[in-house]
Amino acid sequence: MSETRSGFRWTPTSAGLLVAVILIVMMWAFILSPFSKHGGVPTTLKDTAFTATAERACAATQARIKELPKAETAKSPEERAAVLDQANAMVADLVTELHALQPKIVDDRQYTDQWLADWDSYLASRQAYAKVLATGKDARFAVQAEGGHAITERMDGFAVLNKMPSCQVPLDVG
Questions:
Q1: pLDDT of 163 higher than 80
Q2: pTM confidence score
Q3: Is residue 32 part of a domain?
Q4: Do residues 162 and 44 touch, judged by C-beta distance below 8 A?
Q5: Cβ neighbours of residue 74 under 8 Å, at least 6 residues apart?
Q6: Domain coverage including residue 151
Q7: What integer pLDDT is reported at residue 40 of this predicted model?
């Protein structure tokens, strides 16, 4: 290869790196352009009526849960279990209500189905935790993990992305 005036010498490696950088920049320009079919985030729902209805349901449930005594005020695991059982009943009602909602846009259903499956798993984890607490054992709360991350991270991300902040998981378990 030839040498430039500054003394830089083009080698096959430096030329290859330049081509790679240019291709990566072009790829991202295309992905973010209006010409890309996947320019938007794929989990952004198109059915805003679904998200608005879900947000109202979640906000009402979150408000009711916040009225319950805080986890740190419980004097025993059994006392904490009793309060958690009340909250779990509210979460179960919410999950039932969310399952009854159906997005009008068919493409959205694959995303809401996964989100609702996560809610089902999260509710089961809450209920199992309450049963452990009811035995007097002071255990730690845990939820299912996928890919090294708790499903609650995915649930919360989906809720925030779709402008349903109240549909993030309740922070009452402690």
A1: yes
A2: 0.76
A3: yes
A4: yes
A5: 80, 83
A6: 48-167
A7: 42
Q: Tokens standing for 150? A: 């708790």
* Same domain? 76 vs 161: yes
Domain co-membership, 136 together with 74: yes
Q: Three-state secondary structure along the chain?
A: CCECCCCCECCHHHHHHHHHHHHHHHHHHHHCCCCCCCCCCCCCCCCHHHHHHHHHHHHHHHHHHHCCCCHHHCCCHHHHHHHHHHHHHHHHHHHHHHHHCCCCCHHHHHHHHHHHHHHHHHHHHHHHHHHHHHCCCCCCCCCCEECCEEHHHHHHHHHHHCCCHHHCCCCCCC
In the chain, the number of structural domains is 2
Instruction: For residues 78 and 123, state if they share a domain.
Output: yes
